[in-house]
Amino acid sequence: MKVFHLSHTDLDGYTCQFIAQEFFEDIVFFNANYGKEVGVRLDSILESITTDPAYKLGAKFHSHKAPSFLILITDLNLTLAESTSLHQRVEDLKSQGYKLELILLDHHISGQECANKYSWYFLDSARCATKITWEYLLEHYTLKTPTHKLWLHNLVEMTNSVDIWLEDGYNFEFGKVAMGMISASNELNRFMFESEHREYKFRLIESTKDFLERENGAVEFDNALFCLKKQILGGDPQTQTMDSITSQAQVRLLQDKKQECSIHFQDKLGFLSYSMGGISVLANLFLRANPEYDFYIDVNSKGNVSLRANGKCDVSALSKEYFNGGGHKNASGGKLDGFRESFCYADIKKQVLQKLQIL
């Protein structure tokens, strides 16, 4: 069975996924905040199912060998319209022969109307989503590594205490540290580095294991967290600043995306990123490490544009002509008129290329 798991972007949401990977061998993760992003991620999941090559091959030659799929949604309450649309699309796929199961595990009372209407929508406001997910998976599936059960149970109880705010609950103070850890750990951009961002947060969650049962664990973990983050990002806590470690990690990841993110503009080669923010250090480091590029451009979620160069391109002229902006030859900014927010990099790149009259 192949699992597609959509969850929220806080401690509870990521811990649901951290727990789920302990039960499934073949699992693909998606994350969303509320609003339009939920629909975008659900569209991606359904597209992944309908284009799955293993399914098409199995269904064509051996229908009994066609893979089955599970759509698991945790710590997100859908609107009634979202639930109705998803239910109909899943039923349509099932009528076409897809072996597909849908389950939503949540604790937000605002989803009560959906839970009343659909059997796949499970709601329990007395437990956080992590605890609901843990207990549901224990009941219906097999834990891959039984020796992990005790510490995972403790992780679940800690998350439950802080997420539904049980001040007398298990390790509540530790939970507050963990909650802040996840909300503040955005060193790797979620939209540019989706899987790496998630894995980073999984590593941080896993690092709680060594502190959770200590007598003064919350304070010790709080004190150790900054160094742990440096180590997880691949740096040396004793010789490197967080800014240096983060910038170098980002550059390494950006270099893996050259084919996807390159822009050929006139006789110049540029690199386009989305929502990186504060690119001065990062862009200059990237341009020095990759001298084939003439400029670097970043667009944020509101359509604001930041451009950097390293002496090989006048980005102030580029910004003035195409983005109603200006600045210096090596550092400039502007605005992408008519910008449409998107959660898909390809959409952002298309808008920039259209503005540069490349498309």
Task: Give a structural overview.
The chain is of the alpha/beta class and 359 residues long. It has three domains: 2-166, 3-Layer(aba) Sandwich (Rossmann fold), CATH 3.40.50; 171-256, no CATH class; 258-355, Diaminopimelate Epimerase, Chain A, domain 1, CATH 3.10.310. The protein is 48% helix and 16% strand. The chain has helices at 11-20, 36-50, 53-61, 80-95, 112-117, 129-140, 149-163, 172-184, 194-207, 217-232, 242-255, 258-261, 280-289, 315-323, 345-355, and strands at 2-7, 27-31, 68-74, 99-106, 121-123, 262-265, 268-274, 295-299, 304-309, 326-327, 331-335. The strands form two sheets. Strands 6-7-8-9-11-10 form a six-stranded mixed β-sheet. A five-stranded parallel β-sheet has the order 2-1-3-4-5, with helices on both faces. Helix 11 crosses helix 13 (280-289). The longest helix has 16 residues, at 80-95. The relative contact order is 0.08. The model has no long low-confidence stretch (mean pLDDT 94).
Keywords:
359 residues; Rossmann fold; Diaminopimelate Epimerase, Chain A, domain 1; 3 domains; six-stranded mixed sheet; five-stranded parallel sheet; 11 strands; globular
Overall shape: globular
Instruction: Name the beta content range.
Output: 15-25%
Question: What do the pLDDT scores average to?
Answer: 94
Helix segment count?
15
What's the SSE pattern?
Answer: EHEHHEHEHEHHHHHHHEEHEEHEEH
Major beta sheet, strand line-up:
6-7-8-9-11-10
Q: What's the CATH C level of the largest domain?
A: Alpha Beta
Give the proportion of residues in helices: 40-55%
Q: Tell me about the biggest sheet?
A: 6 strands, mixed
At CATH level 3, the topology of the largest domain is Rossmann fold
Distance between the termini: 41 Å
Query: Runs with pLDDT <50, length 5+?
Result: none
Second CATH tier, the architecture of the largest domain: 3-Layer(aba) Sandwich
Question: In total, how many beta strands?
Answer: 11
The tally of structural domains comes to 3
Structural class category: alpha/beta
**What's the alpha carbon Rg, rounded to whole Å?**
23 Å
